Amino acid sequence: MEILGCRLDPIDETEAAARIVQLAREGAGAQVVTLGTEMVVHAQRDERFRAIVNASALSLCDTVGLLTVARRRGAELGERVTGVELTGDLCARAAREGLPVYFLGGAPGVAADAAAILEVQHPGLQIAGARDGYFRDDEAPEVAAAIRESGAKLLFVGMGFPRQEYFLADYVRESGCGAGIGVGGSFDVISGRVDRAPPLFRKFGLEWLYRLIKEPQRWRRQLALPYFVWLVGLEEIGLRKSARASAASGGG
Length: 252
Fold this sequence. Notes:
It is a single chain. This protein has 252 residues and is α/β, with parallel strands linked by helices. It has one domain (2-244). The chain is 51% helix and 13% strand. The chain is built from 14 helices and 8 strands. The chain has helices at residues 13-26, 37-43, 47-55, 64-72, 83-97, 110-121, 140-150, 163-171, 186-190, 199-203, 207-214, 219-222, 224-236, 243-249; strands spanning 2-3, 6-7, 30-35, 58-61, 101-105, 127-131, 154-158, 179-182. It has a 6-stranded parallel beta sheet, with helices on both faces. A two-stranded antiparallel ribbon has the order 1-2. Helix 1 packs across helix 5. The protein starts with a strand and ends with a helix.
């Protein structure tokens, strides 16, 4: 389905993980997006980002705002597909199937710590490599070459949007990985540097509120949610074209 001009594949975590592992085995350099409301709002003004989302092999529902709209429009989605849970599920499957994985992103040491924890949690997981996301744009080809040399087949990129999506769009094929997935701040959570919201907050889709309480400086980012609701409302009553339809017609 499409929400505000952004494609969304209404599948659950189990199906998503199975498809991603298949993509990783096939070695075609597929890009997977974990789509959130902030990303959809950003896509309204960033045509390249919107095109990347729509051209991805999978665009998954990562936030409660998207989940709510998807359900309103007929999707039979039981829950979100979050980066943290999906990373763990994929690592479990990769360990069983012998798929080497690579972790890219975060501050120095974060990706390596997350990889080490997942290696313990999933015996047999092959860690092809890990490095931080602190590199210049002109160093990206070298980073992709290092990933290729590692022999990784599944690439996790935790550099935040839109940078992780841009990197994967430009370099996932050069990396030699069958599939690459943007996982945002998942490495920080897995490594223990950032506390995950308590289960009650997660159950009711209030992780954003927990993060806001813990990090009040994030308030500006949370403005994307009411704006998203406003745009969806306009789209549903026919007062706003989707971003893709507007672009196709040359309108604003």
